[in-house]
Design brief:
Shape: elongated
Largest sheet: none
Strand content: under 5%
Distance between the termini: 87 Å
Structural class: mainly alpha
Number of strands: 0
Number of helices: 33
Mean pLDDT: 89
Helix content: over 70%
Radius of gyration: 34 Å
Amino acid sequence: MILSRAKAADVGEEQGHAPQQSKKKKIPRLVDFLTKRDYVGAITLLEFMNSTGQPLESSDMWIGYCAFHLGDYSKSLGIYKKILEDPKADPEVWTYLGCCCFFLGMYKEADAAAQKAPPSPLQNRLLFHLSHKFNDEKRLMTYHQKLQDVIEDQLSLASIHYLRSHYQEAIDIYKRILLENREFLALNAYVALCYYKLDYYDVSQEVLSVYMQHVKDSPTAINLKACNHFRLYNGKAAEAELKTLQDMASPSFEFAQDLIKHNLVVFRNGEGALQHLPKLIDVITEARLNLVIYFLRQDDLTEAYNLIKDLEPSTPQEYILKGVVNACLGQQQESREHLKIAQQYFQLVGGSASECDTIPGRQCMASCFFLLKQFDDVLIYLNSIKSYYYNDDVFNYNFGQALAATSQWKEAEEAFLLINNERFKAEYTYLSWLARCHIMNRKPRLAWELYLKMETSGESFLLLQLIANDCYKMGQFYYSAKAFDVLERLDPNPEYWEGKRGACIGVFQLIVAGHEPKESLREVMAMLRNTANPQVEYIVRIMKKWAKEHRIAAL
């Protein structure tokens, strides 16, 4: 938002447009409004004077300037177009018109307007930013070389660094300017924003407080403070800060309304997303990304994919989100193509010099190796960030699966049991892994209880098969026999009888060896008799004979 402020303020002075003090002393009142950043008051005064037939000097130019600073770029654009209808209009107005088009996202129109303007520092800065928007590196460097060592140009360069995610370079420029210009308090807010982007939320808040001590009603600063609170604390704390901003309703508040609506959706965990975010996609960059996240949380992968498929990622967040969407779609559709794309996006972020040592960067490498099923490598990265995600259900879900895949059953069981999300706990993937962990940790009863809590379905049948086979492998024959018995009754497959027969004999062996309670023999014999097979009577006869010899009451 630096593009036109300094230059617009200079317009009047350079062209004789700055209103001179009149005998009625009405111009100082306009200056007072501008000094207080009360652009609504300034426009009200200017339009009132126009209606009385006594317009202030350069009235339209001032109205265009105030509308621009209120964020009403459409109104400002209309005024500058009207001014340019006069053949004698200063061609420099084309630059101001270009700035309006730029903030309205009309980049081609902004470029065309800027090309009609005479060369000036503001025109160069506008074309510099347009080159970034067009991803034209050669043109960007051309205008970069024309930048001078003056504050306006250096601020423009810092903003390009910020937009290209070169936050430290932007901080260096802002700090250098601040050393020589302590009165430029707003630069503290810019520095704070850079630290926020670097995930140094506490540092961001500390630097921001320097600015807010002097300017308490800045929508940008209050919004950033709310975002810091969201990261450091929770959505409620962040929303409280935004409420303060809404209650203040200062004259300079209007332009931030879209940002407030957007962030309230984020702070409320997606509430109102469909109402506000679609309208903001072309206004706030993050709106598209947050709408994609909303659709992902609603399991609407088609909408999420359609919203992001044509987006050319340029920031780590965009690469990560495209990776997540492709990974989800690949798993749902069993599409190797989508999974490969996801793996490549994760690898690009995790392997980049700027992200490799960040938490998101390490998560990306873990995700990349997860998709490649290289779980030892997954654990290297997840263990390095485990302390930051102790109570995070998604992290523990993935961590538990990676641990289980590398046969670290005790740790895997602990990770799965930390999960509180009821939707996760109802998924077959969760239940099957947790059941297997219980069995491998010699707690087959807990695995059996997981099955008992399930309703009869295809998934409960699969869990029965897992319990039957895994318990058999681990020598936990009692619960293996129970599982095979139910399986056989649901599906009279000869394999289930063979499994049950082996498991029942296994239980009998454990009873004989003294490793299983003798009371289990009664239930084992009952399970055997559920099967109409000639082998049953032979096996039961041997068991009854042993029970009689050892004076055990059996069937």
